[in-house]
Amino acid sequence: MCARSEAVELEVLGAEGSEARVPPRPLRLSLLELLGKLVRRDQPAPSHRRAKHNHRFRTFVSCENERRIKANNREYNAQFRYANNYIKTSKYSIITFLPLNLLEQFQRLANFYFLCLLVLQLIPAISSLTPITTAIPLIGVLALTAVKDAYDDFQRHQNDSQVNHRRAKTLRNGKLVEEKWASVQVGDVIRLENDQFVAADILLLSSSEPNGLCYIETAELDGETNLKCRQCLLETAAMGQDDAQLGAFDGEIVCETPNNLLNKFEGTLSWRNQHFSLDNDKILLRGCVLRNTSWCYGVVVFAGKDTKLMQNSGKTKFKRTSIDRLLNFLIIGIVFFLLSMCVFCTVACGVWEWLVGRYFQVYLPWDTLVPADPTWGAVIIALLVFFSYAIVMNTVVPISLYVSVEVIRFAQSFLINWDEKMYYEKTGTAAKARTTTLNEELGQIQYIFSDKTGTLTQNIMTFNKCSIAGVCYGDVVDETTGETLEINERRGRARGGAGRARGRGAGLLLDETAQGRSTPAAMRPASSEPLDFSFNPEYEPEFKFFDPTLLDAVKRGDSHVHDFFRLLALCHTVMPDQKNGRLEYQAQSPDESALVSAARNFGFVFRERSPNSITIEVMGNTEVYELLCILDFNNVRKRMSVILRKDGEIRLYTKGADNVIYERLKATKGDVKSKTQEHLNKFAGEGLRTLALAWRPLEERGFAEWKRRHHAAALALHDRDEQLDAIYEEIETDLLLLGVTAIEDKLQDGVPETIANLSMAGIKIWVLTGDKQETAINIGYSCQLLTDDMAEVFVVDGASYDDVNKQLAKCRDSIRVVNTFMPHGPRSSDAKRDEEPNGAVSGRGANVKLNAPAVSVVTFSNEYVSGGAHTSEPHEHANDDSNGFAIVVNGHSLVHCLHPKLEEKFSEVVLHCRSVICCRVTPLQKAMVVELIKKSRKAVTLAIGDGANDVSMIKAAHIGVGISGQEGMQAVLASDYSIAQFRFLQRLLLVHGRWSYYRMCKFLRYFFYKNFAFTVCHFWFAFFCGFSAQTVFDEMFISVYNLFYTSLPVLALGVFEQDVSDATSLQFPKLYAPGHTSQLFNKTEFIKSTLHGCFTSLVLFLIPYGTYNDGLAADGRVLSDHMLLGSVVATILIIDNTTQIALDTTYWTVFNHVTIWGSLVSYFVLDYFYNYAIGGPYVGSLTVALTQPTFWFTAVLTMIILMVPVVSWRLASARARGTLAERLRLRQRWRGAAPAPRTPSARRARRSVRSGYAFAHQEGFGRLITSGKIMRRIPHADAAFSALASLPGKFHARPSSPPPEPKAPTQNLDTVDL
Predict the structure, then answer these.
(1) Active-site residue list
(2) If you write DSSP's letter for every residue of 914-941 in order, what string do you get?
């Protein structure tokens, strides 16, 4: 309940005229105290505004469980402080930018660490280095990052401003006024026009269509581009577009509070002493687009951040890479290592001062701050030395590390932006790195979460093939060889033969299997060009069909073919529309649009419809049919029918799922049914969506009786749908088969190949879509997420918690059975000896046998296979997913799967699955699934999508990729990277992601090595300088070591390094695998680098120290001075760094040569310039050293001791356990470039999962058409049957089959024979 004071009249509660009973004071106080904890109270309105309000509402308090709105009454609605329509996705403002950005940056421990060091360096008593050495790099890093963050946020501000400044027509005092979207408020009545975005969540009041209907496209919300219908109340529809009436509309709306449920709305409208129920079918949500409706009016219910679109958007998160998180951890370890060295030096200094130093105060006087007492003096000096060593050795984690990391990431982002191979010429769109902080994370992706519509598919259905009267049409066959031709729409004729297919590209892959066509192939002329339909004035230029025999049959008047296309032109609920003088169709599903479009192009043009008639044009002749009845589609019937009369003859035309139609066919002789069944199997095997067509004649008397009973059932008050279904069953019998259609939901170019390569790289791909179950399953087979290789495809579609729990338990048990009898991994020699010739494994698992794959995902020539292709293991390692599982989860079931009690069981099941498809999911559910994997697997995730419904998922994942598609730019604007096509994802990950990770890891290993080699020299020198914090090197050398001498070579390594070429990276996706386990840089690799650096520093210091200790030149000059030793150690250190990075570089460019050798030269140039031109303290030291043979002997000896172990270790490692990249690089060096592997075929034999159309189609508009309303609101569809219920079980014995073809070897070190 809402909390109100006793002054609120009961009229507000719907009990006008009654008096409020005031409870006793103690009870009232108790209730108010209780309600105060449950109800959010708003501040009372100011007194001068309160007077303007109706007195009945002057103390009204907003509630948390309902929302009250009065139309056209801003004063009333203002007291509740509802959100306005202004949206904000940016993170900063001008005022908050500096403090918030600095706060974010100082969350990096390194930045905070260097801030503390800078403060210490400002204290003269403990600092032996100038503060500038830390201040300049720290300010540089903060400024560089701040500029980047400001630019990113500026783009968000621009996008927000663009949206907020869109124009909306709002009623003010009965007149339409144009306002900004940001100015629209709850309760305003706004006008929308055709093709306009809905500004806020509104209650539909009236529209230009009959009966208050309007049509919307919800692609921004759920990814579906098919039109949906909404209908307002008939009482409000009567206002039409009368601005005066609409401006005077004063209805009160009581509805739910803002939430993220896209398919649910509950509320009531009180108007003119009547109450009307409101549901989701009367609501237009923000982000929808008005289609095929000239205008409509609505009252704003939710605005701005309260809209369901924004409620599903999720929050912008600060994303860090796993390397960033590891560096934060390592910095803690390095700080402890630094502190331990400082503590050791502190203790040692105190001991030395107490034992030795106090006797040398004449030569080394103590500071005036130090007490004269030897004990206390030694303690104070030791404490000061602690901070001095902390400053001297702070370069063990230099600030330049983060400067270099940011520069490398920035450069890598430009390499992504400039990659011409990710440029989509059709739209002129290039790939873009919208962030510069996540590049190396692209090389560690373990899970990809993808949208379906517009991401994997083009959402374009094409009429591909058909079978009419037992004759198959659509295949193009070579007239000489009889082989099926693969047609490519761009290049015309391609190579013949399914065995020589090289992938589908952008064309239609027409593969003929053993079932074949009935007409001999040699009799069909071959054609490589699409047919010319220009004889038909209503043809569509974009329509492509290649088999001329079907067009010839139409032109010669083949009765079966004419009846086939006549049915397609008549049996549907498509709405025709004239747009710019051109006939266009608006269908509730792309499938139905494709079928009507095919009939149109072949000369059977659907022209117009009325409630009682359908008009078509057949080869130029107009035919008008009387529409007697529409037997509408639903998910239980899986079919739709129309009953038509023409020239006194009544016919019933039906189309639907083939199994449903076949059950209702009339028993006839002949082989048409069997041939058509063969064609159905063939189409289903090619991943096409099939539909069966049939008809029957009706007698006038029988139809009249049936129509009477149909009318009675339509008026029934109880069980109306069940009675109508029974009536439909009576007449949809004894059908005559006409044929079947096969349409293709066109994938984007290269999707199967991309998914195959990403799967081979060890990346698991999940599809999260708002589309229907069967549609998602068909696409899963088309793009090879689902294959016949799999042990089982589970479907979880339970409606209740218990149902889902049982289904998950059954899935888990099935997985355990298969893993028990056929575990993954290499089989022992005993197991191989037990293997039977037919592929079954004898022993305990003899009755469990899986099908071998029909086509291997990728194959290589035999020279890559140890001992030939036939010697490779069929189950080579645990990553071999030939016996993997897949699971399909419905949205309503996912709600229960994500319940805390089922979350663990759900995770256990899905993590054993190679592919996961979640259908009918909301945007927020997508984000919850991503968060589940992030939490349970600690895996690096990537989300890719193209619509506003994908924004939550993109923000939740570690990496968000937006596709510049047809559904707007919301996904791109929320993403970290944007590409134009899904196929570019493999290049983004396998090439740029892998290179970025490889480069960053190599950079970090070398960087830590060189800095430990440089810094720890001070620690060794401490043993010889009384632990006085005296530095080995010149102060200027310390300042510029990381800035000039060693920065550019390592930057060139981090930007340009490649172990293999981009082509090789794509040919061998297994090269991507090291990133999954962070093999190239982890704690172990860090420790190796630091130990190597410490060893180098020890050698660098001790050998020159031993050589120059008490050393004399040939002319008798003393060489054992501190400055000479420092110059020698510094010079050998630079030579060692140069040699080391030269060994680390495998891909030499001009930049590498210039930076590596240039840095070595710059050391000598800058040293002489500083000491001679400026007058540095080390003037002449390096000159003296270089003129002495002692220096050259020392340098050569030191370099040999340092380099021989490194080179020997690398050669031994490469020979004993070389990586795949090393072996490929070696092979390319000695044998030339590796041949490209065959790309996977776009069509694979698959299990017969047909009639995707029947599942994907929604309940039709039949009743609306026949009732004269043209269209009506779509009721909630019944739960779809499981699309895979009829699939054969995988755990039963199967009949013997021919031996499977040898499986392609997986790519690893054992199968690459070099």
Answers:
(1) 451
(2) EEEEEES--HHHHHHHHHHHHHHH---E
Task: Flag residues of the chain having pLDDT under 70.
Answer: 1-64, 128, 133, 222-226, 314-318, 362, 367-371, 398, 459, 478-528, 635, 687, 717, 822-883, 965-970, 1113-1116, 1118, 1231-1314
The type of residue at 595 is L
d(CA 1228, CA 1234): 7
Cβ–Cβ < 8 Å for 883, 818:
yes
Rg, C-alpha atoms of the chain: 38
**Buried (b) or exposed (e) across 754-776, using 16+ Cβ within 10 A?**
bbbbbbbbbbbbbbbbbbbbbbb
Q: Which long-range contacts (CB under 8 A, 24 or more apart) does 559-566 make?
A: 560/468, 560/469, 560/738, 560/739, 561/468, 561/469, 562/604, 562/618, 563/695, 563/738, 564/466, 564/468, 564/693, 564/738, 564/739, 565/598, 565/599, 565/602, 565/603, 565/604, 566/599, 566/604, 566/616, 566/618
Q: Is 435 exposed, middle or buried (0-12, 13-18, 19+ CB in 10 A)?
A: middle
What is the rounded CA–CA span in Å between residue 1007 and residue 1102?
22
Distance CA 949, CA 450 (A): 12
Q: Residue 465 forms beta bridges with which residues?
A: 742
Please report how many Cα atoms fall inside a 13 Å half-sphere around the Cα of residue 683, on the Cβ side.
30
586's enclosing H/E stretch is: strand 582-586
* 1050 close to 404: Cβ distance less than 8 angstroms: yes
Q: What are phi and psi of 578, to 5 degrees?
A: -100, 120
Residue (of 962, 996, 954, 999) closest to 979 by Cα position: 962
CA distances from 625 to 566, 698, 736, 738, 1223 (A): 11, 15, 20, 19, 72
CA 1177/CA 1199 separation, integer angstroms: 28
In the annotated binding site for Mg(2+), the residues are 451, 453, 946, 950
CA distances from 1012 to 141, 399, 1088, 1097, 1194 (A): 22, 14, 11, 7, 21
The separation between the first and the last C-alpha atoms of the chain, rounded to the nearest angstrom, is: 77
Which DSSP helix (H) or strand (E) runs through 378? helix 374-392
Confirm if 518 and 549 have CB atoms less than 8 A apart: no
Residue 132: C-alpha distances to residues 121, 889, 1014, 1040, 1148 (Å): 9, 60, 20, 11, 35
Backbone angles phi, psi at 468, to 5 degrees: -125, 120
Name the token pair of 287: 């982000």
Cβ-based neighbour number of residue 1156 at 10 Å: 21
What percent of the residues of the chain are helix, what percent strand, and what percent coil, each to the nearest 5?
A: 45, 15, 40
Two structure tokens written together for 444: 């560690």
pLDDT for the residue numbered 268: 92
Query: What span, in angstroms and rounded, lies between the C-alpha atoms of 618 and 707?
Result: 29
Q: What is the pLDDT of residue 350?
A: 87
What are the residues whose beta carbons fall under 8 Å from the beta carbon of 1031, sequence distance 6 or more?
128, 392, 1018, 1021, 1038, 1126
- In Å, the largest CA–CA distance within the chain is 132
What are the b/e assignments for 1256-1273, b being 16+ CB within 10 Å? bbbbbbbbbbbeebbbbb
Structure tokens at 863: 């020279």
Tell me which residue of 209, 193, 301 sits closest to 1273, measured CA to CA. 209
CB contact at 8 A, 637 and 725: yes
Produce one character per residue of 816-836: b if its CB has 16 or more CB atoms within 10 Å, e if not: ebbeebbebeebeeeeeeeee
Sequence-distant (6+) residues with CB within 8 A of 1129 are: 1017, 1032, 1033, 1100, 1101, 1104
In the annotated binding site, the residues are 451-453, 592, 633, 655, 689, 769-771, 920, 926, 946, 949-950
* SS3 at position 420: helix
| Residues in CB range of 957: below 8 A, 6 or more apart | 449, 930, 934, 941, 942, 943
Separation CA 964–CA 969 (nearest Å): 7
